[in-house]
Design goal:
Keywords: Activator, DNA-binding, Transcription, Transcription regulation. The protein has helices at about 5-15, 20-30, 35-45, 80-90, 115-130, and strands at about 65-75, 95-100, 105-110, 130-140. About 40% of the residues lie in helices and about 20% in strands. Helix 2 (about 20-30) packs across helix 3. The protein has a four-stranded antiparallel sheet.
Amino acid sequence: MQLDKIDRQLLSMLQKDSTLSLNELAEAVNLTTTPCWKRLKKLEESGVIQQRVALLNPERLGLLFTAFVMVKTSDHSHEWYRHFVEIVDEYPEVMEFYRMAGEYDYMMKVLVKDMKHFDQFYKKLVNRVHGLNNVTSTFAMESLKYTTALPL
């Protein structure tokens, strides 16, 4: 989908505050509400806007431990891949999950309360998934940048 300047302005505003009203959005981009609504509807229908969510503060919820888990496997079959993805998807503590190129085959970002909870997650995962050759974890000492805003 081709985005014009107004689309980009609307998207930038919504990335900062998805609770802005239609009137506030329309006024900010010098449109009336109907054409603004039509643009937003088009952005939603095309999948550019996937959903509108509230961003929660993990520290305020006691989720203080971030781990990055890298996985190597010798089984690259489609069946194994599907099974692995289904299992990982069941864990709410996995915030992000990627298939990688390079030394490791998969990487996930895991957010939990502490090391004890990470260890519980780790043990559950490795006991449920067969064919893992190497599972390596590293732990974040400090988050230096975090954003959900995409560069427009």
